[in-house]
Specification:
binds flavin mononucleotide, Rossmann fold, alpha/beta
Amino acid sequence: MKLVLGMAGASGSIYAARFIKQLLVLPGETHLIVSPASIRIFREEYETNVQTPHDIIDFITNKWKLDPIHKIHYKKFLDIGADIASGSNTWDATLIIPCSMKTIATINAGITENLIERCADVTLKERRRLILVPRETPYNSIHLRNMLSLDSAGAILLPASPGFYQMPKTLDDLADFIAGRAFQLLGIETELFPKWRPGESE
Ligand SMILES: Cc1cc2nc3c(=O)[nH]c(=O)nc-3n(C[C@H](O)[C@H](O)[C@H](O)COP(=O)(O)O)c2cc1C
């Protein structure tokens, strides 16, 4: 699996953290792009002092005592000349988790001023899989129109709306529901949440 992973500045760092926790122990390689707003929010939500994407990966590795085998390529947010800025380089899918309404809007408008936006745009034009994990509440009609338009363009909208029917005990359980669904959409089965079995809770 060759992935482009973007973290944009929406609340919900935990969704990215739990996705990356699982990703790091899987084979494959990922190009990681983190927006400045996302780093700032990660700092606040995890009460940590991360300053760079590298710090975020180290934080996740240490927090969950991981032994990573996954190769992470750290990409600069504003490097629109990076290898992955071009469709001539192939990767399987792009995931933006979490995804702000600003990044939803710019992708929908075809604006590609940073590498997250550019990769999303390339992913759509090359007809590869683009998975967006938007988080905002409530939505206004601009958000809704942008998301509908992105769905029509081929993106998959996976809202940060975890289910409760697996009886989550912790916030990590809740976030794993979304991380696990993202892996499913990438074609990777994980044990991140139990599959629904009718009748088990009766
Ligand atoms: C603490 C904090 C939480 C935020 N939460 C959200 C959010 O949940 N959804 C959202 O769309 N924007 C949220 N924002 C605003 C975005 O970070 C802002 O629009 C930013 O410009 C997004 O840029 P980016 O998508 O390039 O990271 C938040 C900002 C801060 C400081």
